[in-house]
Amino acid sequence: MTGAVRRLSRHLEEILAGLALVIVVAAVCWGVLTRYVTAQPATWSGEIAAIAFAWMVFLGAAAGFKYQMHISVDLLLVVLPAPWRRTAQALGDALVMLFIFYVIWLAVRFNLEALNVPTPVLRMPAAVLYASVLAGFAFMAVRYAQLIRHRLTGAAGPMFQLPVAGERRA
Length: 170
Known about the structure:
Layout: H1 3-10, H2 12-36, H3 44-66, H4 75-79, H5 82-114, H6 127-152
Helix pairs in contact: 2-3, 3-6, 5-6
């Protein structure tokens, strides 16, 4: 895998969430500009901003998931003996993956139902909005599977580290 493709696959959630943030800011600015400067307010800008915001939230949550930034309580894990700790960790991983796949299943069902429901202003399928849940949890499933594989190989330390400003990583 080339360096550019590797970087893209490592940071796809952040790239897409960043793009959604740019769309949110642009749509809101355009909406404000057209409402207060011109005589024709852009009614579509609020809907575009809401859709992009949902994508930003769920892709950002997936990025936080990748870096293990979501809250977890490991009080019990640290006091258990090593064999029990591994078993408890495996059980926890299985429960998390089950939850992720359950939400993916629900999101697929919800998106299929929303295909024929138009959005209020632009009249596009509401599934465009709800697909953000599916995409975010799909990224979470992939990243958590990678994390489980990382743990099973016995590798020490986190699998993904937050990029530091000004530092170049491969």
